[in-house]
Amino acid sequence: MCFVERFADGTECDITEELPFDVPESWAWVRLGSILQKITDGTHNTPKYVERGIPFLSVKDMSNGKISFENTKFVSEQEHQELYKRCNPQEGDILLTKVGTTGVPVLVDTDREFSLFVSVALLKFNNSLMCDRYIIELLKSSLVQIQCEENTRGVGNKNWLIRDIANTLIVIPPLAEQKRIVTKIEQLTAITTNL
Fold first, then answer.
1. C-alpha dihedral sign at 188, 176, 140, 92
2. Contact 31, 166 (CB under 8 A)
3. Nearest by Cα to 134 from 56, 24, 32
4. 165, 168, 173, 174: CA torsion to nearest 10
5. Cα(181)–Cα(79) distance, rounded to whole angstroms?
6. C-beta separation of 179 from 187 below 8 A
7. 105: which strand partners?
8. Could you tell me which of 98, 99, 97 has the C-alpha nearest to residue 67?
9. Which of 44, 85, 158, 164 is deepest in the core (most CB within 10 A)?
10. Cα 3 to Cα 13, 31, 114, 146, distances in angstroms
11. What global pTM score does this model have?
12. Per-residue pLDDT of the chain (195 residues; tens, 9 = 90+)
């Protein structure tokens, strides 16, 4: 069987050799960028920090897999509004560490406003078509983590570029199957945690 990737300009490319394993017929191999409504990263310029204001998060504030506001820096409301025009994290979005500690996905589980530094990517997707917990588990999987390792550039301060994140090959089952997979993972995690 041949798997063809179609591009916006109408060209096609056979990606059969890239596929690491077979999947059921109802599943689809796609590039991560193709399921996203938006992919960007935080500001590339260091902002002016203030003593109190809007939290300004970097990779250090989420490298353990959860957002932490405990040791964050702050920016003014005015600077936040400027930064938020391009990179607007909201509840239900996914953040992905891309500089230093790369490939750690974090679900935005708060409605608190914050801004992001360049070390974090923002992934927005259609929640009615994709299960956020499935995407998190997929991003943590060896399928994605191997690609992250292969495509992270640099020696000291490693960087997983936005274009390479968007080009990551992923597999998407139907929505109902995504939810079943997440339920099974949660069940198995509960069992192993209690061992």
1. negative
2. yes
3. 32
4. 50
5. 41
6. no
7. 96
8. 97
9. 164
10. 8, 13, 40, 21
11. 0.88
12. 545 566 555 666 667 778 888 889 999 899 999 999 999 999 999 999 999 999 999 999 997 889 999 999 999 999 999 999 999 999 999 999 999 889 999 999 999 999 999 999 999 998 888 999 999 999 999 999 999 999 998 877 789 999 999 999 999 999 999 999 999 998 898 888 777
Instruction: Record the tokens describing residue 45, joined without a space.
Output: 């310029």
Report the phi/psi class of residue 58: left, alpha or beta, with left for phi > 0 and alpha for psi in -120 to 50.
beta
Nearest to 116 by CA among 169, 65, 44: 44
SS3 per residue for the chain: CCCEEECCCCCEEECHHHCCCCCCCCCEEEEHHHHEEEEEECECCCCCEECCCEEEECHHHCCCCCCCCCCCEEECHHHHHHHHCCCCCCCCCEEEECECCCCCEEECCCCCCCEEECCEEEEEECCCCCCHHHHHHHHHCHHHHHHHHHHCECCCCCECCHHHHHCCEEEECCHHHHHHHHHHHHHHHHHHHCC
Q: Residue 144 in contact with residue 138, Cβ under 8 Å?
A: yes
**Spatial distance between the Cα atoms of 143 and 140, rounded to a whole number of angstroms:** 8
Give the tokens for residue 73.
């820096």
Question: Residue 48 is which amino acid?
Answer: K
Type of residue numbered 161: L
